[in-house]
């Protein structure tokens, strides 16, 4: 995760679920301890290590809260093997309900919003958005896609390759060209890493810019987000709480020439800031498609309360 081999909030959460399952399978509870009290203590340094490698995304934090709750709720009357099987099943259920089945439900809803002749703008790479577009193509819908990309990772290249391989006409532009291309777009589809309690959408840096430009040109902005990514945190800017990526990755140039700011470390008053996320105000989002319903951003607190009652 620290080396960006596993990218995307769903993929990172799925990798964490697999790691926790492996830990629980190999875990041996001391004879003088209860599994529901000792397992949480045993898992804590593992979670601390992961957060030191890279800041956890909201989906990972929510899974950790879920599995800790399941451990605490496990019956003391169960044997160690029975408790282990129950927790492994809880991990499987979390993945199946919140990632796999939720993704399928969102895909069905989002595909219905794609009509023949659409020109859909997407930003960078999202497995969920790609799955929606590929499913729409499988249903013989005729549409075009504009992939907007930005440095330093240029992950939109991979999106463009997958879509063109499926026979979907694609255009590829950098983020600085989005104001020009937006005139030809009929709708914008974005993915979210989290939906905050105040309705703000947390997404890859540049998402807010896409929402603002689309709003300027009166284009509908559709955000696709699973409800397990809803977060009780309140945030209105990208500075107060964010993840910082490697600043040196911003120095890479396409023609291998030295960046004008390559010597930034030598200047005591200069610091490169490579933000990972930004926040998009709810006023810029037309609708949020989740597995339970198509909602406005203002419904985030309702979904959070529903999740709390469910637990």
Summarize the structure.
The protein is α/β, with parallel strands linked by helices and 311 residues long. It is 42% helix and 14% strand. The two termini are 29 Å apart.
Mind explaining what this structure looks like?
With 311 residues, the protein is α/β, with parallel strands linked by helices. The protein has helices spanning 9-26, 35-53, 58-73, 80-111, 127-138, 156-165, 178-181, 207-216, 300-310, and strands at 118-123, 143-149, 170-174, 187-191, 194-196, 201-204, 221-224, 230-231, 277-280, 287-289, 294-295. The strands form two sheets. It has a seven-stranded mixed β-sheet with strand order 3-2-1-4-7-10-11, sandwiched between helices. A four-stranded mixed β-sheet has the order 8-5-6-9, with helices on both faces. The radius of gyration is 21 Å and the shape is globular. The mean pLDDT is 90.
Total of DSSP H or I helical runs spanning 4+ residues? 9
Query: What is the global morphology?
Result: globular
Strand content: 5-15%
Helix and strand element order? HHHHEHEHEHEEEHEEEEEH
How many extended strands?
11
Largest sheet: 7 strands, mixed
Helix content: 40-55%
Distance between the termini: 29 Å
Runs in which pLDDT lies below 50 for 5 or more consecutive residues are none
Order of strands, main sheet, comes to 3-2-1-4-7-10-11
Q: Classify the secondary structure makeup into a structural class.
A: alpha/beta
Radius of gyration: 21 Å
Mean pLDDT score: 90
């Amino acid at each position: 995760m620290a080396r960006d081999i596993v990218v995307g909030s769903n993929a990172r959460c799925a990798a964490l679920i697999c790691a926790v399952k492996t830990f629980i399978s190999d875990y041996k509870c001391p004879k003088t301890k209860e599994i529901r009290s000792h397992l949480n203590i045993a898992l804590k340094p593992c979670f601390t290590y992961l957060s030191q490698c890279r800041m956890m995304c909201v989906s990972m934090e929510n899974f950790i809260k879920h599995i800790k709750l399941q451990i605490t709720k496990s019956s003391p009357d169960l044997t160690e093997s029975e408790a282990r099987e129950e927790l492994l099943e809880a991990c499987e259920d979390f993945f199946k309900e919140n990632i796999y089945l939720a993704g399928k439900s969102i895909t069905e809803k989002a595909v219905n919003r794609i009509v023949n002749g659409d020109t859909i703008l997407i930003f960078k790479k999202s497995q969920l958005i790609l799955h929606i577009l590929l499913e729409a193509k499988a249903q013989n819908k005729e549409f075009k896609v504009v992939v907007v990309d930005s440095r330093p990772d240029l992950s939109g290249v991979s999106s463009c390759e997958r879509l063109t391989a499926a026979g979907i006409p694609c255009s590829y532009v950098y983020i600085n060209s989005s104001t020009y291309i937006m005139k030809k777009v009929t709708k914008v589809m974005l993915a979210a890493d989290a939906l905050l309690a105040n309705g703000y959408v947390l997404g890859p840096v540049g998402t807010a810019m896409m929402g603002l430009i689309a709003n300027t040109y009166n284009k509908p902005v559709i955000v696709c987000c699973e409800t397990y990514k809803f977060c009780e945190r309140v945030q209105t800017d990208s500075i107060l709480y964010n993840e910082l990526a490697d600043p040196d990755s911003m120095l890479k140039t396409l023609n291998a020439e030295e960046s004008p700011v390559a010597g930034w470390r030598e200047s005591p008053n200069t610091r490169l800031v490579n933000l990972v996320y930004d926040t998009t105000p709810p006023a810029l989002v037309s609708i949020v498609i989740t597995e339970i319903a198509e909602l406005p951003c203002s419904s985030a607190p309702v979904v959070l309360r529903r999740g709390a009652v469910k637990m």
